[in-house]
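In practice, a research group might receive sequence data for several interacting partners and want a quick structural hypothesis before committing to experiments. The following worked case mirrors that situation: the sequences arrive first, and a predicted assembly follows.
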Amino acid sequence: MLNQPMLQVRQVSKFFGGLTALNKVDFEVYPGEVVALLGDNGAGKSTLIKCISGVYHPDEGEITFLGKQIRNASPAAVRDLGIETIYQDLALAENLDVGANVFLGKEKKRRFLGVFPVTDDEYMRNEAAKVLERLDIHIPSLRQKLVSLSGGQRQAVAIARALYWDAKLVIMDEPTAALGVPEQRKVMSLIRSLREQNIPVILISHTMQDVMEVADRIVVMRRGRVSTNMPRSDATEELIVRHIVGMGESAART
Amino acid sequence: MDTTATSPRVRTSSSRTAAVNLLAQVWPWIFLLVMVAFFSIFGTGFFSIRSAANILVTSTLVMLMAIGQTYVIITAGIDLSIGWTVGLASVVSATVMRDLALGGMSNAPAMALGVLAGLLVSIVPGVINGVLIAKVKVPPFITTLGMYGIVRGAAFLLTDGQSAVAGLPPELRSTLTSLGNGSLIYNLPGEGITFFSPPADLAAQQLRILQRLLPYPVLIVAIVVVIFAFILARTLFGRHTYAIGGNPDAARRAGINVDRHLIMIYVLSSFTAAIAGILHVFRFTTGSPSAGEEALLDSVAAVVIGGTSLFGGAGRLQGTVVGALTISVVQIGLTSMNVDPIWKFVVVGVIIIVAVFVNQIQAYLEKQREHA
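A structural hypothesis for the assembly, expressed as tokens:
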């Protein structure tokens, strides 16, 4: 079971005009693992992520998720299959409360006086509370608008939303970039709690400390290729940096 | 060390934000009460049932325009064209009524079709505004400023450049005025109450003290307000309006059809303006291109006094109602003090700027809290 990857990217290439953004990339994610995806700017991380989430369609190769070919799927179709991408800007409406955000675009309705369709805010708040509890997140009042929450709490809301709508794989793009130290801790523990629920995470990060702390496997990309793919146990910060800057081969030799 | 040092500061700033938020919500009410108190003390005959009815009737035009404007401003837009949409709807409505009545149709169906025509014509500028803003991405300010000119021209072309639609038959006009200036309940102090129409054969002296309780235009506007306040606060349409104002990209990624929603919002804005135009026909027994021209500034003022943020995403229709009443109180109040009513424009202009300033302080404090 563990040897069966949930997501499999095979020999994927993507070209932008004369530029080779991805060059025969192989990449897989197994159930319940946290895969850190690293690389310098322009190494191809975000192109790969966008191919997986359906924003781009690869020119060569194939991508399968739970046995289904998703190479040409739309972002909405990919999300419906259970791959949820949490971008840096989180895509939350900060002027609304937690319940409204978890249910944004899929609001629960009820009939007011048996006639008029209205939003069922209490139901949505309660459901949001349940999923936050699952993530061990405490938000003082669920009636609060997101603007008054901390960065880590907002991150938690974004993850809670993904989880509530049955995410089977979560992709996180630089989740700790804009956060203070205690908030970064919180996000790390959120990622761990996703893993405990057997939901794999692809973590894009520049923060070496985060990667070393939470990743099970580390994939480094360089110039559109996968330069290394190693278990956390084999990695040192120095080795990773060498791969990022393109001295991986010499590192392996010495 | 870090936590002990920062937590008290966070707490004070959060309680300060709470206080600011509360103040932001109640200050329109306080301001309205202060205005009422001020004019009650210094104005002549301001604090009376007659003047209250007067204030309510006067507020109907701004109130209707401000309903649509509230929705638009919550999506971080603005609609500058609605002043002339009021005029266009009134002109079309009055013209249709006149031509049908002159063609031999009886008053009731002629009026009904006139009302319908006025409402339908307003959809045109609304749809064009919405499509340009949502699909072509022309900024709302520019789109609706252009529409301001287009609708103004259209209204005046329909009246051949005249300031009002001429030639409505007298019977039609008397029916219109009996509805437009009628009231559900009349009270002649000392004589008693009558329903639907004032007591017959009133002397001039009695006419001056006759109290009109629940004038029809006020009733109609009250119904419209309740409907749109309910939609905004409780329904999916309202929720998506806030979401789009807060973060259009998030709304789009969540699967909300943002473009279609924006088009509907600008149609709604034109539509409530058109109701105001039709009300004008009933109250003044004719249509006039400039029926709502002056009220554009007032409609924006009503919205911002009511606490709706010009940055979008926040605001309530209840606030707008208070804002529209405030403007009306100022207008009637200044008259009761024998001040030249022209001063109203100056006062409303000042209020708009102060209201936006208060709004910005609130946003600034919220940001500060975020970074604390």
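Before designing any experiment, note the following. The first strand of chain A starts at residue 7 and ends at 16. The mean pLDDT of chain A is 89.
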